[in-house]
């Protein structure tokens, strides 16, 4: 859904295309196809809920990388973003934080990496109890590990 | 209002204030506790929402300067190597704490006798032993009896699951022949006293939605209130005032609407932690006490101790489920806890094994440390690290130094105009040498456990979670602020019960000892009610 270009989007159509290319460059899909790219995790919806803070920084980076960004090779795109991050460190970090925020809080992504989808509570996690017989050597050498007497 | 006298007025509803109120409730005296913060609602904690991870960077941030709630006060850390972190509200910092719950060691109370540094405490581990046990029972502590590094003790609940992280690092410790043991944790491993057990959610440091973590809003407070203690929230104390006879008269505070109020009391008990308590004492100036109340020794605000710390994170081939389970509670090693001068420093450190973080934090810290790039290679680097890590934290003993201080900031204030605390703190050479030794040993342990790569972060600046020493106890009024049971040498009806009365810091998380001390002080007061002010 997120790679769809729409007319009621707060960004112009060329900028939407650049945004998709930007997302795809920041978090590309995994080479085995198992993990989606950042374009495929509902960034438009995320943008709608965070527009006030997110739009100004997105506009800044999109203006800087230009409308021909989608037409560049992947290598050139990485270079352009690297240059942006070197000259606009704070804005870049803010954008990256939001992209990661959207990506790693997406239920599909979470399921794929073994994290509870949705809120953690009340589902919770199961943990291996751990093998307490591993303590045997410590107990066997208790004399070496004895606490220091205070007097 | 000014004629309304309470018997005992406690300032601060955190770890120590709660335990003290609970114990004093036995007396059926009129006990009131004031806290500047609110009750927190577990249904509001981040784990209830999908964006649980990003919320911990905002409204549940551990740094009050970032969190910026109107119930917080700002802290000036500009001249400090370490940033103060806390929580202000019912439960105090236990709302956000990791609940790693070791006790100080018997030797920690005798560092001068044993190692010729700092001062001995005016009481011993044995004195506190029954109060440690009582506190473990009321808080709900999980652990395993038999650790040779302590005198015998019996936690009321079985240990938390070690998980793959604990097992893996334990194997490393075993290869090296080092001590380790499952951590005592103030997190319940089984249903206990009407609370359900820990669900292994993970992010304990942004509040526990399940209530498995023993914060004092759900342990001590409900019972203390049932037994008659009155807890008033949103009451921010500005100063302690004095009667003509030199006794404390009560406190001036601001209520939720910013109105200045006065509460008289027969006894005032400070429990605002190692930063909040000296702040209010220093702000309680008068003709007789131009340098702040209870400060004839000049020690109020001095000898501030944190625990200098660092973390080494090992990356493992196998999946360790690192993001699951209580982040700070797993296993520990006391192999280097005691002095060995051949190591090049005095005293020692604790090795606290911690689990990993959630995916967003993993990605962001990976970016900041250069270990997980954005773009090409992101997925592979993330997959290699996420859930494949175990960390060893090095918690160093911090020795008291008079030049490490809490003072009043001349300009910065909270929203009620009370001067903010200013922290002046530098690591000592002893601390840095100790930390460097500890980081090497942490890496050694992780490599022995099979880590293919180790990333170090030390010293860690945002680590001022243990706030100690700024109103130290002692027998000599010239060099200490309170006596061996928390009573001010200068003002006989003023008591201090929080981490500020620590003489030395030990090398373990302090809350178990802070609470044992506050229960001990309460018990002493109960036993000496008729001669309390002699
Ligand atoms: C992120 C984090 C992790 C931690 N992890 C651990 C851990 O794993 N193990 C451990 O042992 N310890 C840990 N700690 C430390 C632990 O929380 C503290 O040691 C403990 O809570 C201190 O108890 P206290 O009673 O001294 O103060 P606090 O619990 O901090 O309580 C002080 C209370 O006083 C109130 N107050 C302050 N000033 C005023 C005023 N002027 N008027 C009215 N009220 C006031 C505050 O609002 C607060 O509620 C951690 C702390 C943090 C922040």
> Counting H and I runs of at least 4 residues, what is the number of helices of chain A?
7
CATH fold category name of chain B: FAD/NAD(P)-binding domain
Mean pLDDT of chain A: 94
Reading off the top of the CATH hierarchy, the class of chain B is best stated as Alpha Beta
- What's the helical proportion of residues of chain A? 40-55%
CA radius of gyration of chain B is: 22 Å
Ligand names = flavin-adenine dinucleotide
Instruction: Compute the number of structural domains of chain A.
Output: 1
Please outline the major beta sheet of chain A.
none
Superfamily (CATH H level) name of chain B: FAD/NAD(P)-binding domain
Note the total helix count of chain B. Answer: 12
Strand content of chain B: 15-25%
Major beta-sheet overview of chain B:
7 strands, mixed
- What gyration radius of chain A follows from the Cα positions, in whole Å? 23 Å
Explain what you see.
The complex is a heterodimer of chains A (151) and B (534). Chain A is mostly helical and 151 residues long. Chain A has one domain (6-117). Helix content of chain A is 52%, strand content 0%. Chain A contains 7 helices and no strands. Chain A has helices at 13-26, 43-49, 51-65, 74-87, 89-104, 107-113, 136-140. The longest helix of chain A has 16 residues, at 89-104. The termini of chain A are far apart. The mean pLDDT of chain A is 94. Chain B has 534 residues and is α/β, with parallel strands linked by helices. Chain B has one domain (5-46, 56-526): FAD/NAD(P)-binding domain. Helix content of chain B is 24%, strand content 18%. Chain B is built from 12 helices and 16 strands. Chain B has helices at 15-24, 52-55, 64-67, 111-115, 125-139, 163-176, 220-226, 273-283, 359-369, 378-385, 429-448, 511-527; strands at residues 5-11, 31-34, 76-80, 181-182, 230-232, 236-242, 248-254, 260-270, 309-315, 331-333, 349-354, 389-396, 405-413, 419-425, 453-457, 494-496. In chain B, the strands form 3 sheets. In chain B, strands 1, 2, 5, 6, 7, 8 and 16 form a 7-stranded mixed beta sheet that branches. In chain B, helix 5 crosses helix 12 and helix 6 packs across helix 11. The radius of gyration of chain B is 22 Å and the shape is globular. The relative contact order of chain B is 0.19. The model of chain B has no long low-confidence stretch (mean pLDDT 97). At the A-B interface, helix 4, helix 5, helix 6 and helix 7 of A face helix 2, helix 6, strand 4, helix 9 and helix 10 of B. Flavin-adenine dinucleotide (FAD) binds next to helix 1, strand 6, helix 8 and helix 12 of chain B. The site of flavin-adenine dinucleotide has 43 residues of chain B, from helix 1, strand 6, helix 8 and helix 12.
């Amino acid at each position: 859904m997120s790679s769809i270009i729409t007319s009621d989007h707060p960004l112009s159509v060329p900028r939407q295309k650049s945004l998709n290319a930007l997302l795809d460059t920041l978090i590309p899909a995994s080479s085995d196809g198992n993990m989606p790219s950042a374009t495929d995790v509902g960034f438009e919806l995320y943008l709608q809920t965070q527009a006030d803070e997110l739009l100004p920084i997105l506009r800044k980076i999109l203006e800087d990388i230009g409308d021909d960004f989608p037409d560049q090779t992947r290598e050139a795109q990485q270079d352009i973003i690297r240059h942006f991050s070197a000259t606009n460190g704070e804005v870049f970090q803010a954008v990256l934080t939001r992209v990661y925020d959207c990506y790693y809080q997406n239920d599909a992504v979470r399921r794929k990496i073994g994290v509870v989808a949705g809120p953690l509570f009340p589902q919770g996690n199961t943990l291996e109890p751990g093998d307490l017989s591993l303590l045997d050597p410590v107990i066997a050498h208790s004399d070496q590990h004895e606490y220091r007497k205070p007097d | 209002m000014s004629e309304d006298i309470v018997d005992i007025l406690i300032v601060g509803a955190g770890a120590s204030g709660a335990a003290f109120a609970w114990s004093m409730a036995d007396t059926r005296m009129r006990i009131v506790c004031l806290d500047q913060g609110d009750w927190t609602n577990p249904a509001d904690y981040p784990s209830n929402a999908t964006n649980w991870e990003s919320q911990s960077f905002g409204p549940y941030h551990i740094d009050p300067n970032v969190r910026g709630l109107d119930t917080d006060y700002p802290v000036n850390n500009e001249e400090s190597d370490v940033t103060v972190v806390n929580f202000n509200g019912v439960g105090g910092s236990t709302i956000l704490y990791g609940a790693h719950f070791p006790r100080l060691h018997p030797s920690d109370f005798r560092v001068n006798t044993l190692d010729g540094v700092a001062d001995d405490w005016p009481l011993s581990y044995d004195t506190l032993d029954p109060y440690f046990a009582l506190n473990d029972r009321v808080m709900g502590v999980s652990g395993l009896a038999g650790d040779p590094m302590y005198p015998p003790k019996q936690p009321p609940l079985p240990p938390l699951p070690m998980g793959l992280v604990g097992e893996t690092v334990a194997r490393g410790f075993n290869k090296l022949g080092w001590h380790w043991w499952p951590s005592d944790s103030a997190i319940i491993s089984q249903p206990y006293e009407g609370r359900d057990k820990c669900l292994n959610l993970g992010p304990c440091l942004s509040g526990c939605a399940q209530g498995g973590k023993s914060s004092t809003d759900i342990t001590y407070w409900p019972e203390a209130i049932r037994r008659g203690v009155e807890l008033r929230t949103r009451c921010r104390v500005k100063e302690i005032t004095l009667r003509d006879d030199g006794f404390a008269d009560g406190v001036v505070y601001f209520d939720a609407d910013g109105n200045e109020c006065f509460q008289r009391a027969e006894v005032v008990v400070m429990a605002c932690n190692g930063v909040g308590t000296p702040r209010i004492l220093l702000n309680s100036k008068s003709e007789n006490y131009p340098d702040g109340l209870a400060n004839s020794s000049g020690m109020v605000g001095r000898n501030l101790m944190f625990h200098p710390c660092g973390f080494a994170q090992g990356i493992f081939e196998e999946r360790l489920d690192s993001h699951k389970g209580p982040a700070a509670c797993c296993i520990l090693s006391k192999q280097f806890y005691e002095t060995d001068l051949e190591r090049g420093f005095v005293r020692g450190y604790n090795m606290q094994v911690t689990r990993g973080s959630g995916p967003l934090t993993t990605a962001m810290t990976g970016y900041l440390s250069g270990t997980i790039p954005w773009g090409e290679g992101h997925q592979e680097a993330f997959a290699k690290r996420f859930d494949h890590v175990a960390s060893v934290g090095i918690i160093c003993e911090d020795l008291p130094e008079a030049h490490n201080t809490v003072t009043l900031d001349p300009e910065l204030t909270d929203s009620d105009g009370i001067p903010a605390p200013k922290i002046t703190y530098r690591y000592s050479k002893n601390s840095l040498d100790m930390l460097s030794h500890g980081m090497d040993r942490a890496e050694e342990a992780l490599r022995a456990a099979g880590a293919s790569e180790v990333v170090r972060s030390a010293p860690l600046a945002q680590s001022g979670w243990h706030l100690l020493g700024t109103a130290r106890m002692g027998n000599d009024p010239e060099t200490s602020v309170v006596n061996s049971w928390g009573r001010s040498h200068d003002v006989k009806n003023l008591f201090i019960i929080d981490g500020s009365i620590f003489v030395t810091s030990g090398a373990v998380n302090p809350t178990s000892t802070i609470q044992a001390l506050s229960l001990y002080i309460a018990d002493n007061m109960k036993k000496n009610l008729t001669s309390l002010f002699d």
